[in-house]
Structure formats: structure tokens, C-alpha cells
Design goal:
Number of strands: 11
Strand content: 15-25%
Helix content: 40-55%
Number of helices: 11
Largest sheet: 5 strands, parallel
Strand order of the largest sheet: 1-3-6-8-11
Oligomer: single chain
Shape: globular
Structural class: alpha/beta
């Protein structure tokens, strides 16, 4: 279990480094395993820490966004089954974080999934778009990205964004159940299969090119 405990769990230099360190620790573990991530209170993740990136972190903007994309690519091809236990809001980069997992279970009574980049006037970097395209059907992709609308848990199930919903007390448990049957799979084989499944998207994400729309 990887519990994010940074409030809105916004992505900055410290968060990305800590998240990668946690993934390193999980990879070093031995025996049957899977990875489930969750947040606390009403946030799963609210995406990039724009206040920091537009202020103190401005000199690191390009590097931080590139490292975020690489981190999402790493999670997408992680050598064990992964599930996002979405305890609350998943906005922008936080929505992409959930999409980087194999499975998603969303809190039924509270929280939204949203990709609001059109309203933020922030076009998607190629790696981000590549990730999103692996998870959403073309029609859903069009509707969510061009509108930037917030989607509740019930609609996320209908649209195929998440695999199921649960009461807040059951989100983590249901996510664990979703990956439990896959914990004994060989990690090397699991990682290789995922890299094959997502070869094109993962290749784009590893390049971490930020030239959106080109």
C-alpha cells in the first residue's frame, strides 16, 4: 500500500522524488505482491503543483514535468499489478496518475475525475496524451478533453474510466481485491508484457518531449 499524505498530493520536485523512491522500495520487495495507491481525506491527487511551478519552482518547470511523465510511464509498465484506490478528487495530473494504474476503483459518494487542461490553457504533452489514449475510448477522450468537465464516480463507470466504485470505507479493500489474484505472477514477465502492450505510448513517455500539439 502506497498512501500519499501531502494534502492535495500535488506534483512537485519533492513529491515526484518521494513517489519514485516508494516505487523503488516496492520493486525491491520479495514474494507475491501488488501495488495499491491511495490518498487521504477528499483528494486522491490534484495534479501539478502550479503555485510552486509558477513561483519558486519555475526554473525546474521543464525538468519536473518531464520527470512526471517518466514516472507515469514507469507506473504504467510497473512489474506487478497496480490499482488506484481513488478516495477523492483526481484532477489533471492526478487523473493521469490514476490512469497509469492497471485498475481504478473510485469512491462512490464523493470526488470527481477531471482533465481540465483546456480550461487551464495547458495543452497535453505528447507523453500525457499517449497515456490517456491507452485508457479512454476515442469518444470519451474527445468529450472529456475538449470539455474539461468533471465526472462523478457513477459516470466514470459508464464511460469506462474506472473499473468500479465503492463506499469510502471499502475503496482500498476493493482495490486490493482487484489485484489479489495477480500477486503471484512473475514480475519480469508482467513488466515485459506491459511494455509490449503499451510499447508506443511508453516510448513517447520515456522521451518526455513537452512540445504539445506538434
Amino acid at each position: 500500500m502506497l498512501t500519499m499524505r501531502a494534502g492535495e498530493n500535488r506534483f512537485n520536485r519533492i513529491f515526484i522524488d518521494d513517489f519514485n523512491a516508494a516505487l523503488d522500495e516496492v520493486e525491491r520487495s520479495e514474494g507475491p505482491a501488488a501495488l495499491v495507491t491511495t490518498g487521504e481525506d477528499k483528494f486522491y491527487s490534484n495534479g501539478l503543483d502550479l503555485d510552486w511551478l509558477m513561483g519558486e519552482g519555475a526554473p525546474q518547470f521543464t525538468a519536473v514535468v518531464a520527470d512526471l511523465i517518466k514516472m507515469l510511464g514507469r507506473l504504467m509498465t510497473f512489474p506487478m499489478a497496480t490499482a488506484a484506490a481513488m478516495n477523492g478528487h483526481a484532477f489533471a495530473g492526478g487523473a493521469m496518475l490514476s490512469l497509469a494504474h492497471d485498475f481504478r476503483i473510485m469512491r462512490a459518494d464523493r470526488g470527481y475525475f477531471c482533465l481540465p487542461e483546456i480550461d487551464l490553457r495547458m495543452p497535453f504533452a505528447p507523453g500525457m496524451m499517449a497515456l490517456i489514449k491507452t485508457r479512454l475510448t476515442p469518444g470519451v477522450l474527445r468529450d472529456l478533453l475538449l470539455s474539461g468537465k468533471r465526472v462523478n464516480a457513477a459516470d466514470c463507470v459508464t464511460l469506462g474510466v474506472v473499473d468500479g466504485t465503492a463506499a469510502v470505507t471499502d475503496v482500498v479493500g476493493n482495490a486490493i481485491e482487484r489485484v489479489a489474484a495477480l500477486t503471484d505472477k512473475d514480475r519480469g514477465t508482467m513488466g515485459a508484457i506491459k511494455r509490449g502492450m503499451y510499447y508506443e505510448a511508453h516510448s513517447i513517455m520515456q522521451r518526455a518531449d513537452l512540445s504539445a500539439g506538434k
